[in-house]
């Protein structure tokens, strides 16, 4: 593993941080440590980090809050560490966009394997367009406002989308006219912990089409590429 690959371990237990850092350094990674979300935020601002290993339960600001903030800013890979009793928090973390999770106590070798897998997937994903997260975007007869998580018609009439539908649409808008397969869509919307349910992407695309397509049976906005995946087929422009 390239020693330039930089991992940030965020956990309020020093013994856990130290043990993970020692193991990951031994396996060729550069590692920084943070005892809480505030310190982690400073490190992320001042240094280039490739992946965050983040404990959910920490005094003060918890890992879920930091996950939400990091995902709103971009696609930095996040692996959550959870206790057995934190199943609800784990699910919420994945819904917020964490890439994977590991339940304490765990074998460091398993964490290493998950880090490698998440980094491989992140490197394989297509790059986003240059639009910022706050740009309003016009596509077909619709305008999307990422900051407000809203979609509206040209006359301002709002379109009711669920969080999952808006997240999927945002992925298509960030990669205009780029074919994305199911694995990539899962990575970009839910994290690969959802891999066993890859057909759910097809169902989600169908639900989104029913709301944004003039004729959902003959879609012109989000097209299927047989054997490849899906792509938004209309121009995406600043509104």
Outline the structure in words.
40% of the residues lie in helices and 20% in strands. The protein contains eight helices and twelve strands. The strands form three sheets. A five-stranded parallel beta sheet has the order 2-1-3-4-5, with helices on both faces. The chain has a five-stranded antiparallel beta sheet with strand order 9-8-7-6-12, with helices on one face. The chain has a two-stranded antiparallel sheet with strand order 10-11. α3 (63-73) runs parallel beside α4 (87-96) and α6 (163-174) packs across α8. The longest helix has 17 residues, at 108-124. The protein is elongated and about 60 Å long.
**Structural class, please?**
alpha/beta
Q: Give the strand content.
A: 15-25%
Number of strands: 12
What is the helix tally? 8
Task: Map the helices and strands.
Layout: E1 6-10, H1 14-26, E2 30-34, H2 37-46, E3 51-55, H3 63-73, E4 78-82, H4 87-96, E5 100-103, H5 108-124, E6 137-139, E7 142-145, E8 150-153, E9 158-159, H6 163-174, H7 182-189, H8 199-212, E10 222-225, E11 229-232, E12 236-238
Parallel strand pairs: 1-2, 1-3, 3-4, 4-5
Antiparallel strand pairs: 6-7, 6-12, 7-8, 8-9, 10-11
